[in-house]
Amino acid sequence: MTRLNTRLTTRVGSITLKNPVICGSGEHTMTPEGIRAALAAGAAAVVAKSTNESAAAKAQLDKTDYALFDSQWNRLPWDFKPPVDATLFCRSGLVQAEFGVWLEDIAQLDAEAVQQDAYVIPSLILADLDRCVEHARLIEARGLRVLEVNIGAPHGEEAAKGAIVLERDVDRIETIVSRIRAAVRLPLWIKLTGQSENVVALADAARRGGADAVVMMGRFMGFLPDLETGAPVLGTSAAIGGGWALPLTARWLMMTRKKLGPSVPLIATNGARNGLDVARFLLSGAAATEMTSAIFTGGYQVIAAAVAELEAYVRQRGKTVSELLGEAADRVETYQDQQDRPQYWREFAPFAAPVD
What we know:
Oligomer: single chain
CATH topology: TIM Barrel
Helix content: 25-40%
Shape: globular
Structural class: alpha/beta
CATH class: Alpha Beta
Radius of gyration: 21 Å
Largest sheet: 9 strands, parallel
């Protein structure tokens, strides 16, 4: 066992994490080697690449493609040295291993993670609810300690019929989570879409269904033309995420905390690129942050750097992670609360700038 830095420990329901940095599910957590690398870099938990029973979802992995862009939409080399403003645009698919083989690998890796005071978390993506419930039972029976179920995969409406599901209906979400909750007792994390007019309502539905924590929010779908060829980049629409998404995710975290209260554990994803971004999500109400695109495009060293940067920030503030949780969210005011500034806007207008 490692010696915990109590300044960084955080609680997600009944689970104690040694720090708030989680390596989110993606191609970089598809293999045992990748998961072990993430654990060695200091992640408190690693969410394994998702699976389900759908042959179409597995076949989709053979049609994946990836592109990385700077803030001016210039394509970047995939050299694991992206700039801070890099944006990931991609299609993805699910693990192609047979479920039993996948489960044995995850169970072995989670047993290894115990020695590092960490977790390896299996991730199911919803396709058929009955099969999802069956898989959840098998995961619990095999001794895994946490389960994440992704019902907000951004590709849900682009993928082949029956491959994966993207849920936005609150009644449907409550039903799904209730079915899984009734089947298993292990901690259940539900990952939600950001492609909704009211992510708070989705989180509330997941909580009513029995989720121990909600992960918010999945990436958006986008479309990007190539200026040189006139063709669509990658030939299709694709999921998109970058640092620009952080304020959007943070707002939904803040609003969910205000609606559901501080006792409902929230986990951030979509927008964190470094340790200070993890701190921003922490202040917005997220007990932990799943970093995914930043690690996939920047390598596992992103994890170690994020933990170190977060530790330095927390130490500089003279507080613990738990003491900082939700600090900014709990201080949000309305527009009407702000002081009057008559004519203040003129300082920001173009005619106020000096003329050369």
